[in-house]
């Protein structure tokens, strides 16, 4: 009769007389000329002690089963009357683990059995053997050190089967040690432990393999911090303390990426580690007992940037701090809002410094001062304060708190007076601030009251007309097309009578200086139609 356990790869000789299969166990190699013996492929073997090997995974050596009935354990899914034989094609591979895509050893056909998650109560399964005459229990398993079969079932399907030493498992994991001890009270056979709903089979396998490693830190160094966090979670779940300590020491000593930091933070929120190294990691994850609040620290950073001396460093720090304080930044999602009072206090300080610098610049004749070498330093200092004010304006706009800055800038009568008597090289710096306010107001980024809009335009619109040519030549990042469009839109938000005065000032200036003035022709046409056309004519003209 054809032996169903013989592998398909073995050649068949139909014309030759078959000899009965030998019961002598051959060496297990990759050729698989003879399938290895296992509880699912029983064979009669002489009673002898198996040869011990260094590998912690080996094929199971079956022994003669007794006639005793199968003893049952709490929460065990196995039922002897429902036991089915594993297909010989699914014999464990000669490697250390054998992946199984679909575990056919689920022996309850009426429906799936739900099991508690590791580490609380993994399900111990009895060592069973199906013989031709029925189901029996091993009363004397000659299994050597490999006397535990660990069956891992993945949460999303698939599985792994590992044959291990009960001594190694018990020594390293108190969870598995308790399960094995409970089983040994009633049986001496192969102990089966099933672990359901494993999140990551590979990580669980790697964690078990660490039990056979003498130098766990070296292994963790090879796999990296991201994998070490997964191993730490599994080790803590099965109470593998030697691995937990090694993982904590390794993670405390290495730098983390943002993804690894977030993953480690989630793990520390879910599990508690009572070790000094864990406290060191927590100190890196959480800001405990900080003397300065986030708002106070933000104020210090902003103030440091505005007082920075080196231009290159200042520009680099501006980009850094603005990115940190930006509402769209990943760092600001859970932080409290920016302190408006602190930022405006720094704004007023910059404006006060600007007033002092302009007083120094207008102290003597511009023609005399421009000839001096130190005048270039003075102009650079003025430009620095203007850059600071514009940078603060951008931060306030991002937090929708810039409306009050319009009132502050409108009330700078001293700056306005010095603008009239300053050199164009100096005074156009003031118009850079005005230009940014016009753009924010004309594009809808800043929603000011009617009085604030009117006050800003009445005060700074005419100085802008004078400095527009200088702004075109020294843009310093200013979008002139956007400025022209925003000035026209801002004018159109005023009452028609106020629009009339300002548009006529623009018309006179443009007729004299041409492109040295902003081109507000489009907005002027809209004002004309709204002022002098009525009814359907107005509607038709605006539609066109």
Automatic annotation (TrEMBL):
<feature type="compositionally biased region" description="Low complexity">
    <location>
        <begin position="65"/>
        <end position="83"/>
    </location>
</feature>
<feature type="domain" description="BTB">
    <location>
        <begin position="146"/>
        <end position="220"/>
    </location>
</feature>
<dbReference type="Pfam" id="PF25553">
    <property type="entry name" value="BTB-POZ_ANK-like"/>
</dbReference>
<dbReference type="InterPro" id="IPR000210">
    <property type="entry name" value="BTB/POZ_dom"/>
</dbReference>
<comment type="pathway">
    <text>Protein modification; protein ubiquitination.</text>
</comment>
<dbReference type="InterPro" id="IPR038920">
    <property type="entry name" value="At3g05675-like"/>
</dbReference>
<comment type="function">
    <text>May act as a substrate-specific adapter of an E3 ubiquitin-protein ligase complex (CUL3-RBX1-BTB) which mediates the ubiquitination and subsequent proteasomal degradation of target proteins.</text>
</comment>
<protein>
    <recommendedName>
        <fullName>BTB domain-containing protein</fullName>
    </recommendedName>
</protein>
<keyword id="KW-0833">Ubl conjugation pathway</keyword>
<feature type="compositionally biased region" description="Polar residues">
    <location>
        <begin position="101"/>
        <end position="111"/>
    </location>
</feature>
<feature type="region of interest" description="Disordered">
    <location>
        <begin position="1"/>
        <end position="133"/>
    </location>
</feature>
<dbReference type="InterPro" id="IPR058039">
    <property type="entry name" value="At3g05675-like_ankyrin"/>
</dbReference>
<feature type="compositionally biased region" description="Basic residues">
    <location>
        <begin position="11"/>
        <end position="27"/>
    </location>
</feature>
């Amino acid at each position: 009769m054809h032996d169903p356990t013989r592998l398909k790869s073995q050649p068949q000789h139909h014309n030759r007389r078959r000899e009965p299969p030998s019961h002598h166990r051959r060496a297990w190699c990759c050729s698989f000329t003879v399938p290895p013996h296992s509880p699912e492929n029983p064979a009669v073997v002489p009673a002898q002690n198996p040869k011990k090997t260094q590998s912690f995974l080996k094929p199971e050596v079956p022994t003669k089963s007794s006639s005793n009935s199968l003893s049952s354990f709490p929460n065990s899914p196995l039922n002897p009357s429902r036991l089915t034989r594993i297909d010989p094609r699914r014999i464990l591979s000669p490697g250390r683990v054998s992946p199984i895509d679909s575990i056919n050893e689920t022996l309850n056909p009426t429906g799936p059995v739900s099991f508690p998650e590791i580490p609380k109560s993994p399900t111990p399964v009895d060592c069973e053997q199906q013989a031709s005459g029925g189901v029996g229990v091993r009363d004397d398993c000659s299994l050597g050190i490999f006397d535990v079969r660990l069956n891992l079932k993945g949460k999303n399907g698939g599985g792994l089967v590992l044959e291990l030493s009960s001594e190694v498992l018990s020594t390293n994991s108190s969870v598995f040690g308790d399960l094995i001890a409970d089983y040994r009270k009633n049986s001496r056979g192969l102990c089966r432990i099933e672990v359901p709903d494993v999140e990551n089979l590979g990580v669980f396998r790697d964690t078990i393999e660490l039990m056979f490693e003498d130098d766990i830190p070296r292994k963790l160094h090879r796999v990296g911090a991201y994998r070490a966090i997964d191993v730490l979670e599994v080790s803590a779940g099965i109470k593998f303390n030697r691995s937990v300590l090694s993982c904590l020491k390794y993670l405390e000593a290495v730098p983390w990426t943002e993804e690894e930091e977030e993953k480690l933070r989630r793990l520390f929120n879910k599990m508690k580690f009572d070790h000094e190294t864990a406290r060191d990691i927590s100190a890196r994850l959480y800001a405990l007992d900080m003397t300065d609040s986030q708002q106070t620290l933000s104020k210090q950073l902003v103030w440091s940037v505005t007082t920075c001396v080196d231009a290159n460093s200042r520009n680099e720090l501006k980009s850094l701090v603005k990115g940190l304080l930006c509402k769209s930044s990943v760092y600001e999602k859970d932080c409290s809002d920016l302190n408006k009072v602190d930022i405006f206090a720094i704004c007023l300080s910059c404006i006060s410094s600007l007033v002092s610098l302009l007083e120094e610049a207008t102290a003597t004749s511009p023609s005399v001062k421009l000839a001096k070498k130190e005048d270039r330093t003075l102009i650079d200092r003025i430009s620095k304060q203007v850059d600071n004010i514009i940078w603060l304006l951008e931060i306030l706009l991002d937090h929708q708190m810039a409306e009050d800055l319009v009132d502050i800038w409108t009330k700078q009568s001293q700056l306005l007076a010095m603008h009239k008597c300053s050199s164009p090289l100096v005074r156009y710096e003031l118009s850079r601030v005005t230009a940014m306010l016009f753009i924010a107001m004309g594009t809808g980024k800043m929603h000011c009251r009617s009085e604030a809009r009117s006050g800003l335009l009445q005060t700074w619109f005419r100085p802008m007309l004078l400095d527009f040519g200088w702004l075109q030549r020294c843009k310093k990042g200013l979008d002139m097309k956007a400025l022209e469009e925003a000035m026209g839109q801002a004018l159109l938000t005023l009452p028609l009578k106020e629009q009339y005065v300002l548009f006529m000032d623009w018309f006179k200036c443009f007729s004299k200086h041409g492109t040295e003035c902003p081109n507000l022709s489009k907005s002027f046409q809209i004002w004309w139609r709204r002022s002098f056309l009525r009814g359907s004519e107005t509607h038709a003209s605006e539609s066109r």
